[in-house]
Amino acid sequence: MQIPGHIDPVTTGTVPLRGGNRVDLVGLTREGIRAALEDAGLDAKAAKLRAKQIWHWIYHRGVTEFDAMTDIAKSMRPWLTERFIIGRPTVVTAQVSNDGTRKWLLAAADGQEYEMVFIPDADRGTLCVSSQVGCTLNCRFCHTGTMRLVRNLTAGEIVGQVLLARDALGEWPKGTMAGGADDEEDDAGHYTSDGRMLTNIVMMGMGEPLYNFDEVKGALKIVMDGDGLALSKRRITLSTSGVVPMMARAGEEIGVNLAVSLHAVTKEIRDEIVPLNRKYGIEELLAACAAYPGANNARRITFEYVMLKDKNDSDEDARELVRLIKQYRLPAKVNLIPFNPWPGAPYECSSPERVRAFSNRIFEAGISAPIRTPRGRDIMAACGQLKSAATKVTRAELDRIAEEKQAALG
Ligand code: SAH
Ligand code: SF4
Fold it and tell me: Which free-text remark accompanies the cofactor (predicted)?
């Protein structure tokens, strides 16, 4: 049966090269950098050595100029500069919330805009990364889902967010690196790589990461690479609205923590608020969670549950949620997200008392169900509020999108 509505991964546009004819090395694998160098004329042995050095400078030291690569012969650096760049997304705006949360609106080389958020906490700093410009999925409570224009971000644009965040937080290691400078003085000071502000990454920005699997995988592989950003897979969480056929691969090939945007426990309500449910239903989704490679009691799956007034927040819903988690024997915790409103949103947030009661019902059954504190609401940086200002749709368009969805639901 043909399923109506925006639930399939439709993307538009092609991605032009940043830096004109020069090749952006950000986002390539080490092997990809080697091949690019060889294509440009280096012999195999030199390409391999230079690729290793360049990788280290890009991902370990955060440099953006070949001139700063002090262990590469001085004469070679202009040759590299002519042919390659180490790109960064363009910062359109950068905002800081009164709670310390930061939001950046970024632009890709083709002008497409996407957002990234940094959330500092006492014991960690979490970067919320986007995987697409917009999202094809139209979850009814999500601002990103109302964006019309969509394209997948490239691995370079995804990893570029992490590089840019480290630039902005000023946390690239300084000083001499072991085995480093061979023909020039390196920066003064000590080399440190600990005490980082950016400790965690969540793929919870704009877009559905499992509808952009290859690029997300490529980016996260780079982020996890030991000679570079070196973030542990335990500190990375991929959030999906339930793209069932890609979940096993995500576990096997990427291996990061999984978060699933469940949000409802009945077909009727989930069909309405997460339209993808009409394609992959709750049972199928939970079975895929039970089979997720690497999930166990030490590494539980997070179920995200947005609290919508009179929609999905009753005690009965809480009981059913517990029953489902137990039925599928899921090593799970539940993250309750108070609904973050945006202009024209068709829902309201449940009352604080209701959220607390819902949380208690789940805790009473022995399942952890913390309530997520909204962060950065004043700068529209909270969950589901991300949407580039440049593509804001009118009220009339919003109504039309809602109507389309209603029609699709029959
Ligand atoms: N597309 C992925 C990841 C991005 S959304 C997914 O849906 O899982 C990250 C989380 O924010 C999801 O759980 C999403 O459902 C939630 N979210 C979206 N809009 C929200 C809103 N207005 N208020 C609170 N949470 C929201
Ligand atoms: Fe897309 Fe996630 Fe928003 Fe749904 S909640 S529209 S899947 S970004």
Answer: Binds 1 [4Fe-4S] cluster. The cluster is coordinated with 3 cysteines and an exchangeable S-adenosyl-L-methionine.
